[in-house]
Design goal:
A hairpin with a 2-residue loop joins strand 11 (264-266) and strand 12 (269-271). The model has no long low-confidence stretch (mean pLDDT 92). With 475 residues, the chain is of the alpha/beta class. The chain has helices at 52-66, 70-83, 85-88, 105-118, 120-126, 163-175, 192-201, 231-246, 279-292, 308-316, 348-357, 363-369, 382-389, 404-415, 424-436, 443-454; strands at 5-14, 19-26, 29-37, 95-97, 134-136, 146-147, 151-158, 180-185, 205-211, 248-253, 264-266, 269-271, 293-294, 298-301. It is built from 16 helices and 14 strands. The strands form three sheets. A ten-stranded mixed sheet has the order 5-4-1-2-3-9-8-7-10-14, with helices on both faces. It has a two-stranded parallel ribbon with strand order 6-13. The protein folds into two domains: 5-301, no CATH class; 308-454, no CATH class.
């Protein structure tokens, strides 16, 4: 019989080991998650960040002092609240008990939405209904925000080496000389795909090591439920702790606008694989930060108003990254023995990235990027591409891929390239897209649709100092 409640048992800001330790329980099962933060990296940034030698000493001193601050504790508390989701899902009981952690009504509302929507795919795949989830625990008035000693002009960019974070890092670094990357790894295990791309940026890397409780890595051994969790939400909270410790005034994400589009609808409920990358999460998380910290790090996605087609066009112009960027998830397998040092060329992520780059890079270039395994040249992957453009039998894949309109636009743009005239599978897909998208059969309508996809829709929280002059803010 499964336990009827998941319990938050407390967290520690371990200043000696420079880590946040979170404790949870499910019946007799105990879970512990540890996130260890590394000291500030050595930096060779521009003089605007200060003298390199003096800057390192000052940064390390400030970092050491920050560990005992109220701001660090408030950021650690946010991490504690969000990280629990990885352990709740092992049984998904109907009650979450926050133990001694007093929360405001706004925080409980945020948490409930985070669990129900963030676990939408998990619930769908496991045949569960989480809409009755109850969160209990001591109430508190709206918390007085804790002071965070942030310094202006020091953005932190979470970096995963994929198409989106490479473009964000490049654009933000052009606008802020003191930009740093942020990378989360497992202790003693760094992903070469991330390290190679990070090195290409020339930016300093702020690091954290995340140790997930080993029991959830082998759910079948414990009879646990398994499935997708909103990991971007957890990593966002880790980045906020790093930002407060390092005095970074912004955490700049790389989530574009189609991340807000549901992967599918289950009756009248949206199910979004990318919910913690969505505009809804971004907005709610910003409110949580504002309630907890003052000043709170600016949390925003640089790409929120952009399409994946725009991102692909930008990446196409960044030639130095073509040999090192990596969006294939098989480069990030937890088991090193299953980890690839190249694009697999067959997964949905590989298919989508190839598709959106195909309008802007030649077939020969893409073949080189994919190591001779370019998906568009593989006729056996037609079902994968049809799922992306919505002409297949099933929904979009449960993956971090773009929506149907931008995939369809990419197909038509790529198929019009002279070097793709003989790519039979692509030409056949283009015919399907034309048949399915009546309003695009007219070249002028298609051109207008592509133009809209390549323009900002203005829906973001990007501060003025980071945006292009023609963009319009809504934040």
């Amino acid at each position: 019989m499964r336990p009827d409640r998941f319990v938050y048992e407390g967290y520690e800001l371990d200043t000696a080991q420079r880590r946040v330790v979170c404790h949870y329980a499910l019946g007799d099962q105990r879970f512990t998650e540890e996130v260890t933060f590394e000291p500030p990296p050595r930096s060779t940034q521009a003089e605007s960040c200060g003298s390199p030698e003096r800057g390192r000493d000052d940064e390390r001193r400030a970092w050491d002092q920050a560990w005992g601050s109220a701001g660090a504790d408030a950021a650690a508390r946010i991490l504690y609240l969000l990280a629990g989701i990885s352990y709740y899902k092992t049984a998904a009981p109907s009650v979450i008990d926050l133990g001694d952690t007093a929360t405001s009504e706004e925080e409980r509302t945020f948490l409930r939405t985070y669990y129900v929507e963030g676990l939408g795919e998990f619930a769908y795949r496991n045949g569960l209904d989480l809409t009755g989830l109850e969160i209990v625990g001591p109430g508190a008035r709206t918390r007085r925000p804790a002071h965070a000693p942030l310094r202006p002009g020091r953005p932190l960019v979470p970096f995963g080496a994929g198409i989106d974070s490479v473009v964000t890092a490049d654009h933000v670094a052009r606008r802020a000389a003191c930009t740093s990357l942020f990378v989360v790894s497992r202790a003693g295990d760094r992903f070469s795909a991330i390290e190679n791309a990070a090195a290409m940026t020339g930016l300093p890397v702020v690091r954290a090591d995340r140790r997930i409780d080993p029991s959830v890595l082998h759910p079948e051994d414990h009879g646990f439920l398994n499935g997708h969790v909103p990991v971007t939400g957890i990593l966002s909270a880790v980045a906020v702790v790093a930002a407060v410790l390092g005095g970074h005034d912004a955490v700049v994400m790389s989530n574009e606008r189609s991340a807000s589009v549901p992967t599918l609808w289950d009756g009248d409920r949206p199910v979004n694989h990318q919910w913690s990358k969505s505009a809804a999460f971004e907005s709610a998380f910003r409110r949580l930060l504002a309630e907890s910290l003052t000043p709170a790090p600016e949390y925003f996605s640089y790409l929120r108003a952009r399409s994946e087609l725009w991102v692909a066009r930008e990446l196409a112009g960044l030639g130095r990254y073509h040999g090192v960027f990596r969006s294939c998830n098989r480069a990030f397998a937890i088991d090193p023995a299953r980890r690839l040092d190249h694009w697999c060329g067959t997964c949905d992520k590989c298919c989508f990235v190839d598709l959106v780059l195909a309008p802007y890079l030649g077939a020969a270039q893409l073949s080189q990027i994919f190591g001779g395994r370019e998906p568009l040249s593989n006729a056996t992957l037609s079902a994968n591409f049809r799922a992306l453009v919505g002409t297949g039998d099933g929904p979009r894949p449960f993956e971090c891929v773009g929506d149907e309109p931008e995939s369809r636009a990419a197909v038509l743009l790529a198929a019009a390239r002279p070097d793709r005239a003989r790519t039979a599978s692509l030409q056949a897909l283009a015919e399907e897209v034309r048949a399915a998208t009546a309003r695009w059969r007219d070249p002028a309508s298609q051109e207008a649709a592509v133009h809209r996809l390549l323009e900002s829709d203005g829906g973001d929280f990007v501060p003025a100092r980071y945006r292009d002059p023609e963009d319009v803010a809504v934040g």
